Amino acid sequence: METHDHSSTQAYYDEFSKGYERRRGDNDPGGYHELVDDLQVDFASRYAAGGDLLEVGCGTGLLLRRFAQVTKSARGIDLSPGMLEKARARGLDVATGTATALPFPDASFDVTCSFKVLAHVPDIEGALAEMVRVTRPSGAVIADFYNPYSLRGLVKRFGPAGAISASTDESAVYTRFDSPFRVAKLLPPGWRISASRGVRIVTPAAFAFRVPWLRKALTLSEWALADSPLSIFGGFWLAAITRK
Ligand SMILES: C[S@@+](CC[C@H](N)C(=O)[O-])C[C@H]1O[C@@H](n2cnc3c(N)ncnc32)[C@H](O)[C@@H]1O
């Protein structure tokens, strides 16, 4: 159901790009967003090291710059010129494009990954089919999904929408939630989930990280639980998708 089209998503992220890194990356070392990024990069790096990588929805390049250090080549595409401007300023190889029509030939990459993006794509199955298409048969698609069966899912669905600027909040962007049990049904034929990780399992809200002792305890707990059976309660549920 397309309640938001590409142009409204693009406008939302162009607006978000102005303050996107306010509490991210080098602006908040050890903070909530860095923990999420660390867990995502760590999982994807198992597959990405030494290969050709594409990040779909690379945003300002916070993760792509880290992949670029361990891969043979690292490219990014994104819908939002505002986000891409910041990625380009980092010297990253990025282009404008949409997840549902990737501007690359079949089998171009060893790893095609996407973080905090597919939940904002109404045609998520189309996006996954495109990611699989541009990935080599021996490669992997790594993606995260917003899990309704999680503390984050509950807060996002039933709590107030977070502000992304003085004039816009999170309700302005299309967001979908797909449980770990549903994700397998979204994949194109011939591909399966071969590994997974839960990110943000016990953290109730990002602001908990503003309390120093809690920040430490939550960071340790999230790393300890990410690959445990409790991972199915991760707010961001990460999947490695490979050929059957
Ligand atoms: C929350 S940001 C995440 C950026 C980056 N992956 C990260 O983890 O920092 C989501 C990004 O997805 C992009 N995006 C949303 N829908 C998209 C689509 N259909 N195709 C490509 N990019 C999209 C947005 O423009 C935005 O830059």
**Number of DSSP strand runs:** 7
- Give the spatial strand order of the biggest sheet: 3-2-1-4-5-7-6
The ordered H/E elements are HHEHEHEEHEHHEHE
What is the terminal-to-terminal distance?
A: 29 Å
Quick one: biggest sheet?
7 strands, mixed
Number of helices: 8
Poorly predicted regions are none
- What proportion of the residues is helical, as a percent range? 25-40%
Q: Which kinds of small molecule does this entry bind, naming each only once?
A: S-adenosylmethionine
Estimate what percentage of residues fall within beta strands: 15-25%
Main structural class: alpha/beta
Rg calculated over all Cα atoms: 17 Å
Mean pLDDT: 94
Attribute tags:
single chain, 244 residues, alpha/beta, 7-stranded mixed sheet, 8 helices, 7 strands, 20% strand, globular, binds S-adenosylmethionine
Would you write up a description of this structure?
This protein has helices at residues 6-17, 32-48, 64-67, 81-89, 124-133, 151-158, 180-183, 212-225, and strands at 52-56, 73-78, 93-96, 109-114, 135-146, 191-199, 236-243. Strand 1 (52-56), helix 3 (64-67) and strand 2 (73-78) form a beta-alpha-beta unit. The chain is 32% helix and 20% strand. The mean pLDDT is 94. The chain is an alpha/beta fold. The relative contact order is 0.16. The protein contains eight helices and seven strands. The protein has a seven-stranded mixed sheet with strand order 3-2-1-4-5-7-6. The two termini are 29 Å apart. Bound molecules: S-adenosylmethionine. Residues 9, 13, 56-59, 62-63, 78-80, 83, 98-99, 115-117, 120-121 line the site of S-adenosylmethionine.
